[in-house]
Amino acid sequence: MRWNEIGEVDCSVARALSVVGDRWTLLVLRDAFVGVRRFEDFRANTGASRPLLTERLATLVEHGVLRRVRYQERPERYEYRLTEKGVGLYPVIVSLLAWGDRWMTGDDGPPVRLHHETCGHTMTPELACPGCGGTIDPRDVRPTLRDTP
């Protein structure tokens, strides 16, 4: 199977990867979640080339993760804003952040901390079962396939 066909596989992970499955896209999303909206700011923060960033932003817009909004008429200029579908990727980004903080941080500690505005605490995101509230451990979860007609 070719990478450009991965979105056609009957697998939610494969389909998600067809939209957000490269490092540049994840860095664009990281920036979008901290309020970056303009092309040049994405470019400066990610280090991506213009053509590569143009392609990644177009893909995210095409799939409804970002929307392109004109902020200036002459010359025409646009910014990129997260859609509801895009906001749904927040757990993915903060999970990568938490993993990086645990396994990839240098001697100075994590470069970013998350502060929960509601209670004021610094937090590390964790997956929890909506039924019992317990922390999720992959050894305690069993995936089941849907019934096929």
TrEMBL record:
Domain HTH hxlR-type, first and last residues per copy:
11-108
InterPro entries membership: HTH_HxlR, WH-like_DNA-bd_sf, WH_DNA-bd_sf
> According to the UniProt entry, where is the signal peptide?
none
**Keywords (A to Z) from UniProt:** DNA-binding, Transcription, Transcription regulation
UniProt-recorded name of the protein: Transcriptional regulator
What organism does this protein naturally occur in? Streptomyces camponoticapitis
Upper lineage: Bacteria, Bacillati, Actinomycetota, Actinomycetes, Kitasatosporales
